[in-house]
Design goal:
Number of helices: 5
Radius of gyration: 17 Å
Number of domains: 1
CATH class: Alpha Beta
Largest sheet: 7 strands, mixed
Number of strands: 7
Order of helices and strands: EHEHEEHEEEHH
Distance between the termini: 12 Å
Length: 194
């Protein structure tokens, strides 16, 4: 079956395409020639994922899924959360966002954080939701050069490395996105692909 992933983020596409069920032919927005801006104005991670999937389905009629993700840091009131991509401003700079987090956390002993992803799958207009969460801590400085977003400052529980220090294959097996994708794959296998 063909499913469109409602993103232009090449990092996300790379993470997903290797682990989505092999019976699914994953298409990107570029693959279908979709160039409109997809809104994400709901104010929540769950709401944004649903809003994006619904918008793409309504615009194209293609079965699709969308995600929204956020980093929630306990010591700063679970921010940046839904504002993770533009925490430091509309330029959506990964380095600016990281620097803002590290600045706001100067002197904080509580480094607890979690990454959350929600996938909203829209099949024939019906929405199905899958959530992935991984807990960890925020480091005091940048560690590693791989990954994207907040990966250089997020160390998952049980690991010595940040996401940015891990081999790509390991990160894509344990991440919040991987957890949500495993649930989506299982649902597709049981309900659609058999």
């Amino acid at each position: 079956m063909n499913i469109v992933f409602a993103t232009n983020n090449l990092h996300k596409i790379r993470e997903i395409e290797n682990y989505i069920d092999k019976r699914v032919c994953l298409k990107s927005l570029k693959d279908i020639g979709f160039i409109k801006e997809i809104p994400e104005t709901s104010g929540t991670i769950l709401g944004n994922a649903i809003q994006k999937a619904r918008f793409l389905f309504d615009e194209t009629g293609f079965d699709c899924f969308a995600d929204d993700s956020g980093l929630e840091i306990e010591a700063i009131n679970n921010r940046p959360g839904v504002d993770s991509a533009h925490f430091a401003g509309p330029q959506r700079s990964h380095s600016d966002n990281i620097n803002k987090v590290l600045s706001e956390m100067l002197g904080c002993e509580n480094r607890k954080a979690l990454f959350k992803t929600v996938f909203a799958l829209c099949l024939k207009g019906e929405i199905h939701v899958f959530e992935g969460i991984i807990e960890g801590t925020i480091t005091n400085s940048i560690h590693g050069i791989d990954g994207f977003g907040y990966d250089p400052i997020f160390r998952p529980i049980g690991f010595k490395e940040t996401f940015a220090e891990m081999p790509f294959e390991l990160k894509t097996k344990i991440s919040h996105r991987a957890i949500a994708l495993e649930k989506l794959n299982f649902w597709l296998d049981v309900n659609i692909l058999r």
